[in-house]
Amino acid sequence: MDYQSILATYDAHIAERSAKNLPPKPLVVEQVHAVIAGFENSPELAQRQKLLSILLTQVSPGASEEADLKADFLNSIATGKLSAGELLSKEQAVAELGKMQCGRAVDHLVASLENPELAESARHELSGMALIYNALDRVDQLRLNGNIQGDQLMRDWAKASWFTNKPEVPEAIRVVLLKLDSAPTTDGLSPAPAAPTRTDIPLHAQRMLTPEIREQITVLKQQHPDTQVALFADNGMFGAGSSRLSATNSVAWTTGKDIDGVPAKKYAPIILSREGFAPIFQRAMRSDGGFAITTNTASFHTGDELVIRPHEGKILKDGVEAGTFTITAADLEKVRAGSATFLNTGKTLTAKAAQKLGMSPPDMFAKSERSGQTGGQTMAEKILSRAAGEPVYAGDQGVVAKVNLVGSQDTTGGMTSQEMKALGVTHISGDVTMLQSQCHNAGLPTADVIAANQRLIEYMREKGAVTLQLGDGVIHSWLNKMNSSPWDVTVGGDSHTRNSLGIAFGADSQTVAYAAATGTLILDKVPETVKVAVEGELPDGVTYRDVVNAIALEGRKQNNGKNPYENRVIEMHGVGGLDPEIAFAFSDATAERNAIASVTVFDKDTLIRGVSENLRFVKEMIAREYDNDGALTKLSGLMEHFLQNPEVPAPDADAKYAKEIRIDLSKLKEPLVSDPRKNPDDADNVRPLSELGAENIKIDEVFVGSCMTTAEDFSLVAKVLRNFQTRHPGEAIKAKLWVAPPRPDIREALIQTGDWQTFKEFAAPEGVQAAETQTGISLENPGCSLCMGNQIRSRPGANMLSTSTRPYRNRMGDGAMVYLSSPAVAAIGAIVGHIPTMQEYNELMEGVEIKFGRPNTNVLEVSRSSQVPITTGPVKELQIGD
């Protein structure tokens, strides 16, 4: 297509977006080429001015093809190779290069230090940039060669000019309030069904919360044009749920500030909450230069104008103090810098520049304060101490931990790639293995989603990531089999980044991009640890998933009705004899406890077996050509190194815990189920099956799947179904049952054991699309499926039993009420069409042997045999959505 046709199409795009109250999307490569060609060839001044404006405002800065083209164009003007006349001078072109933050723009500006006409302007722009990376060495060489501007620039950087050039955080910030009925989850701020639009921030923000709330925000902006709108809630934890930078992006777009030189994105939103914030969401807010303020909001109302005094931690209403909050100097630095990644990268630049000059870095940044603790350490403290290279304790601030493993899934991966481009990432750090999945979009992908995923996969592979195919299954289930030792630190773009071995942190996309680029995670504050001691012997017939629910139930019972795990690490004791693949459920569920992370205390023999199995798995990945840039080969070497001399982390006897919760398994006489009716956004309202079963609660649909499940869970469901067939031959199950294994090798193992055939006997007739059936079994591709709810969804208003992770409102279906249970309860609920009574449970579980919480089956061993491949290749019969 010629450039004129592309420009005509782009004009139509602008008009179409404007009609929907949206700005145009940032330019893509072919559009940048067309705009530049139009500018160079158009004889009309007005057209050239229009095209130049588009180029200057509609290209995202960073390291990308689009940004490189723009940088080359600007450099042509700056060096006189191309004339823009009065539209853009050479000095103005240099200033525009400075707005591009990193990548090719840095190269051109550094080269301009040797151009007498441009050197001073180039130095001025570079002094305000932090994403310099290896260009620092080139500037230092210029200094050593006698370049005056290069010498001054090195001194600027050594004095943190990239920070001091930015305006200070205001002493007072005026806001107007909008009250929400309750604190929303990230599902409310960034709904799963709208996941494909997350990289299009303005469009995605149009799905935030409700149309009524979005209209209220618009009205408040009109009534208070010079005042920032701030959302607040009196009850509930703000931002619980998935680790979605998209939630922060949506809030920022509707209530935040413009970013000079960055199209279709805003920053620095302000939110207030009486009951606090989920840890990942709070980190994302701070990373985006925003304020997440915990304060007493009881006296606040919609329309109130407040003055926030961030340096003092005070809130004024009508000139009178109406609230206080805690904010650190480090938090204020992030706001001033514009983002946490810019701040952290800039501090590294300053330290390196000062070192090369033989100077001391300026004593201007907040000190990484230490708690002053000594003595015994928790297991998390021990792991983080090794990763940080120094003793680490709860309360220590600004701890820099080395990262071994990074995970990215497809509905947040687009944002992660955007953040990587914005950071100027050219290749993933050699210290990490990064895994990119396609699991969240595997349910019923559209052609557009498949194309977007392919672009994401190509980008991540180019940067050195290991990538999974569509249909390979759930990222958490893969990451859990890729830890090289119990000392690993993992970071992933999903709240369920919770591995059995080592410690894993779910994080926003900006933090994930930084971890991938630098191989480090910066902990603002090392969290406290809650010790959960599982003791006694589990009665026959009760499963380990019931123990997961018991941890939620007993936590609140033993902590005056409050969640003891919030913003802390959960340290699991008493499950360390379980295979790490089975024990993953305990780690995974800590996301729903709003814990920051979890660790499990394993015995040495179990750890050796676990890492040995991970080594087998990774070697098969290599054999099946998943390796990229030798990342998996290096990972397998680390596993072999650990196995040669296994060193087992364990907490000290005198470790200090914030709380200790004890679970007596012998008292767990029956299954436990979470009840969503009190609050669908809370998975901790757990009740005994005998209570719920007595209420005759109708069940319309049942989901068995998600990262919480293993091969044994599906085998257990098959055993229950065969028991039903024997007792009630020819009868159909009364609810719809979705079956979605998390990995292909689990499905293949179920085929070999005959369990998959059992599912097929209850499946919909051949040719009938599973989503259209009301009863029977729907066999799904390996992936997140209904748990994510972005593609396949339940019927509106359905009552559901589910083995998935969270029951949040509208997540699995519009108005769906989701009761979280064990696979056994879920299977029996599908059979009888309601939450089963204990009598029904015992009848259909008769003869199904459960020992130590696990069914009597060899399916786990089968899944690890040489006859079962870890993948069957791309899904060929994938159903495509509309």
What is the fold's blueprint, element by element?
Layout (H helix, E strand, L loop, with lengths): L2 H17 L9 H13 L3 H13 L7 H14 L11 H9 L5 H9 L6 H9 L7 H10 L3 H11 L2 H4 L8 E8 L5 H4 L11 H5 L5 H13 L4 E6 L11 H11 L1 E2 L7 E2 L2 E4 L5 H9 L3 E4 L10 E5 L4 E4 L2 E5 L4 H9 L2 H18 L21 H10 L8 E6 L2 E4 L1 H14 L9 E4 L10 H16 L3 E2 L7 H5 L9 E4 L10 E4 L2 H10 L1 E6 L3 E7 L8 H14 L11 E5 L6 H9 L8 E4 L3 H20 L7 H14 L14 E6 L7 E3 L11 E3 H5 L7 E5 L5 H17 L8 E5 L3 H10 L1 H7 L14 E4 L19 E4 L14 E4 L2 H10 L5 H8 L4 E2 L2 E2 L3 H5 L19
Parallel strand pairs: 1-2, 2-5, 5-6, 11-12, 11-14, 12-13, 14-15, 17-18, 17-20, 18-19, 23-24, 23-26, 24-25, 26-27
Antiparallel strand pairs: 1-7, 3-4, 7-8, 8-9, 10-16, 21-22, 28-29
Helix pairs in contact: 1-2, 2-3, 2-4, 4-5, 4-6, 5-7, 6-7, 7-9, 8-9, 9-17, 16-17, 19-20, 19-22, 25-26, 28-30, 28-31, 31-32
Write up this protein:
The protein is an alpha/beta fold and 882 residues long. The chain has 5 domains: 162 residues, Serine Threonine Protein Phosphatase 5, Tetratricopeptide repeat; 165 residues, Alpha-Beta Barrel (Aconitase, domain 4), CATH 3.20.19.10; 158 residues, Aconitase, domain 3 (2-Layer Sandwich); 132 residues, Aconitase, Domain 2 (3-Layer(aba) Sandwich); 164 residues, Aconitase, domain 3, CATH 3.30.499. The protein is built from 33 helices and 29 strands. The strands form 8 sheets. A 7-stranded mixed beta sheet has the order 6-5-2-1-7-8-9. It has a 5-stranded parallel beta sheet with strand order 13-12-11-14-15. Strands 25-24-23-26-27 form a 5-stranded parallel beta sheet. Helix 7 packs parallel to helix 9 and helix 19 crosses helix 22. The C terminus is likely disordered.
